[in-house]
Specification:
With 453 residues, the chain is α+β, with helices and mostly antiparallel strands. Helix content is 34%, strand content 20%. Helix 1 (22-34) packs across helix 2 and helix 9 runs antiparallel to helix 11.
Length: 453
C-alpha cells in the first residue's frame, strides 16, 4: 500500500481509529454499510497521521466488532506500511441489507460522524434497501468492449491523484471492485453509465434535456407553446455533467459591478450552485425509471433541475441540509474520485450558502414520489456578501431554511432546531446573520424574532 504525502480528513467515506476499539469499529462498520460504504483506517490518529497498529490486535477486535453487527457486515482487509508504521484499512461496501448493532441501534454515516436513526427514518431506509440495487445489475446485451478505454484511463488517473496513491492490481480488478464489472467481466449499470462508449444505447433514460423558455412559463413568444433552445445531452456521466454545465453557462446572463477601479463580472446564478444542482441530479436520480430523463429548464426568472425519482432512503425535505444518502453509491463514488463532488454530504449546504451570499433567495426544493426538483431564482433580494466573509455554519443554514419556510424565527425555535447547542452560541449565530445583512432583528428581549432582510 503506497500512500502519498498526507491523508485526507475523515468524512462520509473515510474514518480513522487510532486503536482497534471493537465498539467504535462496529459502529463505523454498520454506519458505512447502511450509507454509501467507506474505508475504516486503523492505526491513524484524528489528524490523519499514521501511528501504527498490531495486525493481530486488529484481527481480534474485528472479530468482536462483527459479532455486534446484525447481520454481520462484509469487509475487505488491506495492510500496508505508512511512514514505517503498519496501518490496516477495512473496506466496507454499501450493503443491500439494513444493519444494526446488538443493542438495536441503526447507524448511518453523517459527514465524519456516525448518527443513530429514529423509528420513522429506519422504516424509510429499510424500504429503500428493499427496492434492490439497480446500478449493480448487469446490462443486457452489453460486453466489456462497450466500455471506453479512454474514460477508464482518465478515471484511474484522477482517482490516483485524489487519493494520493497508486492503484495496486490490474484495471480489471479495479473495475470489479468499484462495481463497474461483475466478477465474470460483464458491465453493470454503473459501469455503462460511468465508462460506456454509448450509454444511451443501453439506458436511453440516462441523458439530460436542456430547454430554454423566453418567459416565466412553458410558452414561447406571444404566449404560444415553444422554446428558445432545446438540446439533448448524452454520453458517459462525466461528459453529461460537463456538457450540461457548458450549455447552462452559454445561456447564463452576465452582469457587472464596479468595486473601486475594478469591474467585476457577476453571473446570473452562482456557478457552484448550478453545477451542484446538475451533479446531484445525475448522481441521485432513479435510473430504473425509463422514459424520463433529467430536465434542465431555464426561464427568465429561474432555473429548474428536475431529477426522476423521489428522495432516497431516510432523506426528507426537512433534513436534506444535514443528511446524506445515495441511491447510486457506485456512481457517486465514481464521480467523487473524478472530481465532480468536492466532499460528500456538503453540496446542498454550500448550494444554499452560495445563493444567499450572492443575494439570491435560497434554493427551493420540491418532491413528488417520482421526481425531485431544485429551483434557483435569479432575483436579488439583498446586496451580495463580500468575498472575504467566512462561510456560514450548518446551524445558520438550517435557520435560513426555517425562515424561508415559516417567515420568521425566534431564539426558542432556533434552540429546538439545534438541540444540544448552548443558547449563547445560537444567539451569536443569529447576531452574525444580522451583521451580514441576511436577517433583520425585530423586537427586543422575549419578543425578539428574526426575518429575512
Amino acid at each position: 500500500m503506497e500512500m502519498g504525502e498526507g491523508w485526507r480528513r475523515p468524512g462520509a467515506l473515510q474514518a480513522f481509529l487510532r486503536e482497534p476499539d471493537p465498539e467504535a469499529m462496529a459502529e463505523t462498520l454498520v454506519a458505512f454499510a447502511n450509507t454509501d460504504g467507506g474505508a475504516l483506517l486503523i492505526g491513524v490518529d484524528p489528524e490523519g497521521r499514521a501511528v501504527g497498529v498490531d495486525p493481530q490486535e486488529v484481527e481480534d477486535a474485528l472479530r468482536r466488532a462483527l459479532a455486534q453487527c446484525r447481520p454481520p457486515v462484509k469487509t475487505r482487509w488491506e495492510q500496508g506500511e505508512v511512514d514505517g508504521r503498519t496501518v490496516i484499512i477495512l473496506h466496507v461496501p454499501r450493503s443491500p441489507e439494513l444493519h444494526s448493532l446488538a443493542d438495536g441501534r441503526v447507524l448511518i454515516r453523517r459527514g465524519a460522524e456516525n448518527r443513530p436513526l429514529e423509528g420513522r427514518e429506519i422504516q424509510q431506509l429499510a424500504a429503500t434497501k428493499a427496492v434492490g440495487d439497480y446500478e449493480a445489475e448487469v446490462v443486457p446485451g452489453a460486453g466489456r468492449e462497450d466500455l471506453d478505454e479512454a474514460m477508464i484511463e482518465e478515471y484511474v488517473s484522477k482517482r490516483e491523484a485524489r487519493q494520493r496513491r497508486r492503484i495496486s492490481g490490474t484495471v480489471e480488478d479495479l473495475l470489479v471492485e468499484i462495481g463497474a464489472l461483475t466478477p465474470d467481466g460483464r458491465p453493470t449499470v454503473a459501469g455503462i453509465l460511468l465508462f460506456g462508449k454509448q450509454p444511451q444505447r443501453f439506458l436511453p433514460q440516462s441523458g439530460v434535456v436542456f430547454v430554454k423558455f423566453p418567459g416565466v412559463g412553458l410558452q414561447g413568444e406571444g404566449g404560444l407553446p415553444g422554446y428558445a433552445r432545446r438540446e439533448e445531452i448524452g454520453g458517459p456521466l462525466a461528459r453529461v455533467i460537463e456538457r450540461a454545465w457548458e450549455v447552462v453557462w452559454e445561456e447564463m446572463q452576465l452582469g457587472a459591478v464596479v468595486r473601486g477601479l475594478e469591474r467585476e463580472e457577476r453571473p446570473e446564478y452562482p456557478p457552484f450552485a448550478v453545477r451542484e444542482a446538475i451533479v446531484n441530479a445525475v448522481c441521485h436520480r432513479d435510473y430504473r425509471l425509463r422514459g424520463r430523463r433529467i430536465e434542465i429548464r431555464k426561464f427568465a426568472d429561474r432555473l429548474e433541475v428536475i431529477s426522476p425519482g423521489g428522495l432516497p432512503g431516510h432523506i426528507t425535505l426537512d433534513n436534506i441540509v444535514e443528511e446524506h444518502y445515495s441511491r447510486n453509491p457506485r456512481i457517486v463514488s465514481g464521480l467523487f474520485y473524478w472530481g465532480y463532488i468536492e466532499e460528500l454530504g456538503l453540496g446542498i449546504d454550500r448550494m444554499i450558502e452560495e445563493m444567499v451570499r450572492a443575494g439570491h433567495p435560497q434554493p427551493k426544493f420540491q418532491e413528488t414520489p417520482y421526481s425531485f426538483t431544485v429551483i434557483l431564482y435569479n432575483r436579488q433580494e439583498r446586496p451580495p456578501i463580500p468575498a472575504g466573509e467566512p462561510p456560514m455554519n450548518e446551524r445558520q443554514l438550517k435557520a435560513l431554511q426555517y425562515v424561508r419556510e415559516h417567515g420568521r424565527i425566534t431564539n426558542r425555535e432556533y434552540q429546538q432546531l439545534c438541540p444540544g447547542v448552548s443558547p449563547e452560541t445560537l444567539r451569536l449565530d443569529l447576531a452574525d446573520l444580522v451583521r451580514r445583512g441576511i436577517l433583520l432583528k425585530i423586537g427586543d428581549k422575549r419578543g425578539t424574532y428574526y426575518i429575512l432582510k
